[in-house]
Design goal:
Layout: H1 13-33, H2 39-48, H3 55-62, H4 66-78, E1 82-86, E2 94-98, H5 100-122, H6 128-141
Antiparallel strand pairs: 1-2
């Protein structure tokens, strides 16, 4: 028995999705790290460029809590890629504005992200890559669209050794 195949002979879908997601994130972190970004920094820049969005809106889009978002925006400001500015529509709100250097970085970081995705999907034979993407989109738009409430927090599974 392995983590992929329990005693009953079925495939462990949870393990497969968790493991591939984790390894994809590590590949993405390494690739974006080459230009001094994290995946969170990339996410904030991509969703802030050309749009007036608040820190709270960007945190929701990126699935980040307040503390993580503050740390991420602080790092973007230190790098000269973004800055906090007053909103043009709500004087109480602050938006995250992408600087010209940040806009250039968005182009490069998106090329990196797209390249990692192409590399991974391209390893699948024939039309399997497109079939996998269609299947994942169907799950995200369907039965796995919304997390289910649970009394116990969901934690990352242990890695197979």
């Amino acid at each position: 028995m392995t983590a992929l195949t329990p005693d009953n002979g079925t495939t462990d879908l949870s393990f497969l999705l968790d493991h591939t997601s984790h390894v994809l994130r590590t590949r993405m972190a390494a690739a974006l790290g080459e230009i001094g970004l994290t995946a969170r920094m990339h996410c904030v820049l991509v969703h802030a460029v050309g749009e007036e969005r608040t820190q709270a809106q960007l945190a929701e889009i990126g699935g980040m809590d307040k503390t993580t978002m503050v740390v991420t925006v602080d790092a973007l400001e230190r790098a000269g890629l973004a800055e906090r500015k007053p909103s043009s529509t709500d004087r109480r709100a602050r938006i995250i504005a992408v600087t010209p250097a940040g806009a250039e970085t968005v182009v490069r970081s998106q090329e990196i992200v797209d390249g990692v995705h192409r590399e991974v999907v391209g390893t699948l034979p024939g039309g399997d890559g497109e079939a996998m993407l269609r299947g994942l989109r169907a799950l995200v738009d369907g039965v796995l669209a919304t997390p289910v409430e649970s009394r116990r927090p969901v934690r990352r599974a242990r890695q197979a050794e």
